[in-house]
Amino acid sequence: MHFYWQFLISRVLYLFMNVSKLYTSGVNSSTISFNGLKKIAQRTLYESSDVLKIPTANSASAMVGALPNDYIKKLLAANPINKKAAIVDIQQAFGKAADSLNQINLANKQGLQNIVNGSKEERLEAFKQILEKIRKLDDSYFFDDDYRSTKLINWSNPENSKKSISQAQSILESTLKKHKVLSQTDNIRIDDLGEGMFGRAFRISCKNNNGENVLSDKVMKVYKDISQEEDFMANSALLKKKVINESLPELKQHLKKQTALYPNQKTFFIQAENSLNIPKRFEDMSENDFFQYQKRVSHVDLQQFDKAHGLYREANSTAFIKKAMGHKMDNSNLAKQYLFDLKANYALSEFIPKSPAHKYYKHTNLDNLGIFYADESADNIISGKIIDLGGMVPSEKKLSENPLTRRIYKKLQNASDLNTQTSIFNQQYELMLKTTDSTKKESIKNALTLHLDGLRPSEILALKLPLNKLYELSPRAYSMVSGN
């Protein structure tokens, strides 16, 4: 019993000291964050976002990362009496701004709902607007994707959107001025950059009276609840079903007129007309049953996407990559991701302008971390930088889940020349043979095997490994040089 209480007291003291460190250390830098959650997020690339959702469920705040460096520097230059309280106040202001901006997402969902439940004429006109957006893009891909095609239209009232943005600007401006991050003559402007499946992005600019930036532009991503998107996806499909059921002749007539106006897009309009059909299994289904069916399908789709996208996953990907790279990534091809607030549902990152890449970015080799970027597109890579870290998935768990394997593998892959690489390999091989720690032995072996599997025959031969040892490490490498 004596040892039990001794252990318990030691744990309490340990936790107290670490919590104290969280609030007293790091205030002179931008590393103030919810430290315990950050450590969880850094560990590996998780299969499920529940790993981060569960510990945040009952906490008052849950953040991964910190406020941007330029915000922290301005704040500390003002020498606030209570630095921690000032930082928390700014973070909470961003949370309140996120609430205001999320009203745009909610209004967009409600706007589509109103059209679906409105008159036949309103639905037909809305569908014509969607077709016109697709025509301008000249991309027939959208015909097969009701959800993405419906996303091309902003269904919310523009005046309400302006009001939400104005409220968010006022919240941030007053708070940043209160803490002297902005002067009294500076101002904030927020611009809507557009909406994705899991959130909407906004550009935040802070300028003085001369129109000059006093802080670098940031992107604030406001995340949506999955249930919001399930309704939107179901209504996207229902809108098309209703329009085809009740207005097909008028729609075909409209397409004929459009073909006359744009004869060079004749093939496009033929494809558009061919897309105006409903699968037979849905023809006699009631509108309510159809909506509920589409919502169930949407739920499954979004749950799958949620494994690699959304607030929790992007926080996890960012923290893991930063930790796993082992060095600063200021000049990398990944946009800086500053802060993820898992309770207030927003994230802050650097703004990358859409201009030709004129600067060299050090390429972040995700393969070395056991990661594959599955969401590479023109929307997610701007001016040579990956701006959205959703879509990062494990490609080699031996690397993504084991820091020692990853560290040795990276060292081998980053060797400056073949001689250095061979020397590192042989050192690690000898260490693997000598160590009595079975976990360490397996970690080193996995790194050597993964390295061998990617070598050319000449590089394998340069290692001068006995064939029996080579076969033990990598049957693939063995077959390449032995002829067997």
Summarize, please.
The chain is an alpha+beta fold and 484 residues long. Helices cover 58% and strands 11% of the residues.
Strands side by side in the biggest sheet: 1-5-6-4-3-2
The run of helices and strands is: HHHEHHHHHEEEHHHHHEEEEEEHHHHHHH
Determine Rg (CA atoms, Å): 27 Å
- Helical residue percent? 55-70%
Shape: globular
DSSP strand (E) fraction?
A: 5-15%
Number of strands: 10
Unreliable spans: 1-34
The overall average pLDDT, rounded, is 86
Summarize this structure as a short list of keywords or feature phrases.
globular, 10 strands, 6-stranded antiparallel β-sheet, alpha+beta, about 475 residues
Any overview of this molecule?
There is one protein chain. This protein has 484 residues and is an alpha+beta fold. The strands form three sheets. Strands 1-5-6-4-3-2 form a six-stranded antiparallel sheet, sandwiched between helices. Strands 7-10 form a two-stranded antiparallel sheet. A hairpin with a 5-residue loop joins strand 3 and strand 4. The protein is globular, with a radius of gyration of 27 Å.
Write the layout of secondary structure elements.
Layout: H1 2-24, H2 35-43, H3 50-56, E1 63-65, H4 69-77, H5 83-116, H6 120-137, H7 146-150, H8 158-178, E2 187-195, E3 199-207, E4 213-223, H9 226-261, H10 266-274, H11 280-283, H12 287-306, H13 310-325, E5 337-341, E6 346-350, E7 371-373, E8 381-382, E9 385-386, E10 392-394, H14 397-400, H15 403-413, H16 418-434, H17 438-453, H18 457-462, H19 467-473, H20 475-482
Antiparallel strand pairs: 1-5, 2-3, 3-4, 4-6, 5-6, 7-10, 8-9
Helix pairs in contact: 2-13, 5-8, 5-9, 6-9, 9-10, 9-12, 15-16, 15-17, 16-17, 19-20
